[in-house]
């Protein structure tokens, strides 16, 4: 591959960068080679800082010399030269470090070093060297290391009744025996409480290939995932080599409704409601509007269905709640009993009402004169007492009180809405059989887009890079530049330069954050003026934790060329958000991004769940403002980086600064999230993740920020996200309307620009954990596509995650003449779970998140979390165009 220097801006500072004495080696090289283990060993040109003189590739290769041993070979013009070899894949950054090229006594300059890996997959290393004149040269070698086959689960996983949890166990066997020359082989298990992989070794097969999970593990309702992988020590290796992990999941909870929620029916139709029968001994089903005159009396159901007669199905929205119980005195899924009296006592109780978990609701005074004992609320909710108060006698073992909380499950039935949903339509009726393309980088698939050439770009959460699928199907993982720091030791062979850690990662239930090289908030990839743009918002923190949490906005110019004389991919340009708070910690928590009026506009959320003011910020792209290798561990470097916030009288156009516009004050802080430019007007539209508004900003500066209150925020509804209500998140803007997806309440809002009014549709979904994740517009066929994502590690039903669309033309026609009988049309697909998984994650379920439509072909690309792949759907003729 030829590398010619096209960029000249700032090249002097890059070439002056000292390889071994400075800390600025990038972890992302643009030079993507095919699997170098397939290359002829020395059909190449020896490495020279002067650059290549032929069309041959530089002499730097990676070959597999054993199950987990990768040998890096290089040949250099000056045999005694020092080189630095570093890993291009976060978060591990397996760096061989400084190498002295005094390798072969025959003077040929042929050198090598070995790396032993613990897992298979795609790997890439970059070699960097410099000559006496300071000129630098970089070469990359990439290799695919076949992973061992994962174990096969033979039993285990599933549902655990939280009313009466039992001990659980799971069994496994292995796909293949270890090589006869291998030293050792075993199975490792990572539990929900494990931070890393424990050292305990388990048998690979036979009677001992079993793991027991005691009932007390399932103290709280929720999901419990165990990871199982097969490990061995290959021949002539001293490091273990492990398979991809399979997941064994237990979902601890109660019974739930089956079938679709947000279910649409017409008046006068009878309704059959189904539910599971795995928890307790009876199901209690309640509805204030569907169960006759005594609306507070639940129906006790012992079977798996009930039928609601036609005369009770009136127009409107009806809610049904479902709880599981152990009768006669509980507990129930929405009821927890308080502590019982242990001996004859006098019980003094407080008034019935709402109490938080742990609050004192009364005191027991033993009749024998023993120490009084406070009784507390077992859960947060309404407290009910069994005997009249405020004081009464209690026998030993007597139940005193219980708390009622939110129902275990709810279903919404929508009667008479002008919506026709086609449910469970096999996707193969409209598409060819889907294909899966593996993501070879690190992280969890999130946002996705097509470029103008038909290539696909996917941004991963918890990553420091981006995935690219070329139009011809070649898969690349491009790492974003990141600085490396000079160690305290003197330079010598084997010295490594650790990467700086710009971001924070929240962990646990408290406000604890760990510094990291990967951005949890990697939310947006967009094409603006032929460049790719990406956001890295750092960690999603509720409050500032005292740990640096910086944000970066990164552009990529595919028309540019990378120079072998710079330590990073010259096609990237990193704009680091200013950290002008007193501590210099940043914490902008950038989410959305859009282009308009020659500027890049970004959403500084400043934390979704706190009360900090968020900002709409903007800057004019200029390579002089880029700092690809900012050392975030140096406060002086952070304070002196070129992009600063504009002061009074300053502007991005004249002063190269970043303007930020604070969001207006509101009863709850407006939390600006995603952005999109209006195709007709000088407006930037944005979602307010606090659940209150749809916002816009006048780019001409006359109208400022305008907030349009959302009529129905779903703030108090079941299963929404705390104080965020429906949680407005995704955004699509057309010529006549703005569409907003509510992640938690699973609604799509339509704001009519001309009429300045809202309407909404409810999206049917199966399974409580399904969320309305992302939207994409097919303007050619007037379809608004969306994904329903199951982001849980324990999916329940692997078929729940799916896609669908709303026909926008029918929505518009209905709004024009509501009385005409024109109905809104929508489709929900099924069968996508049958699309094969990629090799690295064979047992994972689909979790569709980002979605993109290629306007040239109608192809749909889906970013698929957990499987860590891109799922591609090609439409059948007639469905598109």
Helix/strand layout:
Layout: H1 11-15, E1 60-64, E2 69-75, E3 82-87, E4 97-100, E5 110-116, E6 121-130, E7 136-145, E8 152-155, E9 158-161, E10 168-173, E11 184-190, E12 210-213, E13 222-233, E14 241-242, E15 246-253, E16 257-258, E17 260-261, E18 263-265, E19 271-275, E20 282-286, E21 299-301, E22 305-308, E23 316-325, E24 335-337, E25 345-349, E26 353-355, E27 360-366, E28 373-376, E29 381-385, E30 391-394, E31 401-404, E32 409-415, E33 419-426, E34 435-438, E35 444-450, E36 456-461, E37 465-469, E38 475-479, E39 503-507, E40 512-516, E41 525-528, E42 531-536, E43 552-556, E44 572-576, E45 590-596, E46 599-604, E47 615-619, H2 635-640, H3 652-655, E48 659-662, E49 672-677, E50 683-688, E51 693-698, E52 705-709, E53 728-733, E54 737-742, E55 747-752, E56 757-762, E57 765-766, E58 770-778, E59 783-790, E60 802-807, H4 808-816, E61 824-830, E62 848-853, E63 860-864, E64 869-873
Parallel strand pairs: 9-15, 18-32, 33-61
Antiparallel strand pairs: 1-2, 2-5, 3-4, 3-6, 6-7, 8-10, 10-12, 11-13, 13-14, 13-15, 16-19, 17-57, 19-22, 20-21, 20-23, 23-32, 24-31, 25-27, 25-30, 26-29, 27-28, 29-31, 34-64, 35-36, 36-37, 37-38, 39-40, 41-42, 42-43, 43-44, 45-46, 46-47, 47-48, 49-50, 50-51, 51-52, 53-54, 54-55, 55-56, 58-59, ...
């Amino acid at each position: 591959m030829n590398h010619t220097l096209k960029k000249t801006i700032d090249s002097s500072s890059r070439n002056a960068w000292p390889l071994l004495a400075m800390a600025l080696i990038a972890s992302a090289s643009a030079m993507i080679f095919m699997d170098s283990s397939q290359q002829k060993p020395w059909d190449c040109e020896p490495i020279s800082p002067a650059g290549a003189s032929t069309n041959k590739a530089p002499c730097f290769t990676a070959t597999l010399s054993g199950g987990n041993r990768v040998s890096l070979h290089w040949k250099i013009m000056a045999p005694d030269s020092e080189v630095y070899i570093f890993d291009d894949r976060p978060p591990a950054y397996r760096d061989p470090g400084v190498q002295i090229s005094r390798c072969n006594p025959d003077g040929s300059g042929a050198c090598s070093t070995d790396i032993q890996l613990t897992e298979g997959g795609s790997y890439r290393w970059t070699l960097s060297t410099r000559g006496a004149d300071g000129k630098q040269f970089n070469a990359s070698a990439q290799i695919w290391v076949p992973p061992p086959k994962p174990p096969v689960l033979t039993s285990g996983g599933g549902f655990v009744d939280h009313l009466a949890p039992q001990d659980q166990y799971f069994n496994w066997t292995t796909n293949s025996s270890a090589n006869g020359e291998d030293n050792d082989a075993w199975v490792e298990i990572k539990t929900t409480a494990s931070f890393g992989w424990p050292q305990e070794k388990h048998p690979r097969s036979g009677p001992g290939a079993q793991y027991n999970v005691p009932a007390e593990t399932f103290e709280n309702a929720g999901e419990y995932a165990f990871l199982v992988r097969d490990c061995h020590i290959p021949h002539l290796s001293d490091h273990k080599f492990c398979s991809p992990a399979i997941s064994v999941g237990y979902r601890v909870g109660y019974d739930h409704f089956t079938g679709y929620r947000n279910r649409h029916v017409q008046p006068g139709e009878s309704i059959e409601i189904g539910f599971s029968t795995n928890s307790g001994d009876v199901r209690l089903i309640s509805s204030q509007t569907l169960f006759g005159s005594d609306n507070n009396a639940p129906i006790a159901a012992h079977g798996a269905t009930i039928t609601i007669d036609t005369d009770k199905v009136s127009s409107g929205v009806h809610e049904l709640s479902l709880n599981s119980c152990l009768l006669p005195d509980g507990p129930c899924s929405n009821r927890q009993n308080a502590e019982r009296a242990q001996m004859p006592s006098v019980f003094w109780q407080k008034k019935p009402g709402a109490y938080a978990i742990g609050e004192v609701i009364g005191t027991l005074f033993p009749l024998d004169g023993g120490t009084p004992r406070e009784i507390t609320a077992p859960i947060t909710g309404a407290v009910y007492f069994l005997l009249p108060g405020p004081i009464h006698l209690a026998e030993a073992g007597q139940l005193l009180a219980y708390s009622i909380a939110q129902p275990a499950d709810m279903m919404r039935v929508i009667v008479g809405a002008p919506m026709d949903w086609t449910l469970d339509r096999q996707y193969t009726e409209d598409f060819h059989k889907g294909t899966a393309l593996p993501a070879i980088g690190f992280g969890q698939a999130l946002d996705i887009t097509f470029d103008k050439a038909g290539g696909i770009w996917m941004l991963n959460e918890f990553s420091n890079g981006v995935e690219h699928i070329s139009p011809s199907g070649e898969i690349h993982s491009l790492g974003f530049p990141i600085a490396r720091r000079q160690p305290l030791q003197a330079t010598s062979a084997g010295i490594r330069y650790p990467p700086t850690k710009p971001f924070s990662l929240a962990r646990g239930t408290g406000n604890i954050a760990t510094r990291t090289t990967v951005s949890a908030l990697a939310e947006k990839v967009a094409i603006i003026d032929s460049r790719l743009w990406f956001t890295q918002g750092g960690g999603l923190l509720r409050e500032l934790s005292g740990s640096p949490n910086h944000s970066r906005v990164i552009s990529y110019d595919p028309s540019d060329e990378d120079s072998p004389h710079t330590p990073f991919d010259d096609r990237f340009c990193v704009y680091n958000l200013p950290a002008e708070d007193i501590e210099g910690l940043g914490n902008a928590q950038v989410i959305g991004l859009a282009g308009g009026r020659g500027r890049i506009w970004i959403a500084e959320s400043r934390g979704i769940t706190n009360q900090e003011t968020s900002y709409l910020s903007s800057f004019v792209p200029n390579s002089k403002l880029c700092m690809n290798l900012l050392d975030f561990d140096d406060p002086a470097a952070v304070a002196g980086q070129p992009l600063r916030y504009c002061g009074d009288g300053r502007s991005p156009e004249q002063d190269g600064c970043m303007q930020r516009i604070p969001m207006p004050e509101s009863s709850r802080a407006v939390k600006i999230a995603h952005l999109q430019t209006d195709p007709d007007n000088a407006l930037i539209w944005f979602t307010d993740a606090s659940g209150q508004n749809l916002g816009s900003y006048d780019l001409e500066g006359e109208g400022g920020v305008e907030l349009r209150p959302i009529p129905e925020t779903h703030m108090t509804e079941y299963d929404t996200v705390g104080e965020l209500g429906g949680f407005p998140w995704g955004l699509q803007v057309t010529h006549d309307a703005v569409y907003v997806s509510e992640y938690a309440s699973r609604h799509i809002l339509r704001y009519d620009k001309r009429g300045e009014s809202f309407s909404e549709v409810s999206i049917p979904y199966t399974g409580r954990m399904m969320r309305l994740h992302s939207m994409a517009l097919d303007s050619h066929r007037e379809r608004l596509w969306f994904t329903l994502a199951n982001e849980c590690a324990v999916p329940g039903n692997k078929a729940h995650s799916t896609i669908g669309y709303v026909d926008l033309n029918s929505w518009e026609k209905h709004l024009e003449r509501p009385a005409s009988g024109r109905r809104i049309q929508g489709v929900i697909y099924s069968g996508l779970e049958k699309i094969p998984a990629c090799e690295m994650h064979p047992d994972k379920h689909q979790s569709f998140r980002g979605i993109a439509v290629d306007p040239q072909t109608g192809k749909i690309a889906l970013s698929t979390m957990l499987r860590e792949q891109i799922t591609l759907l090609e439409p059948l003729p007639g469905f598109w165009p």
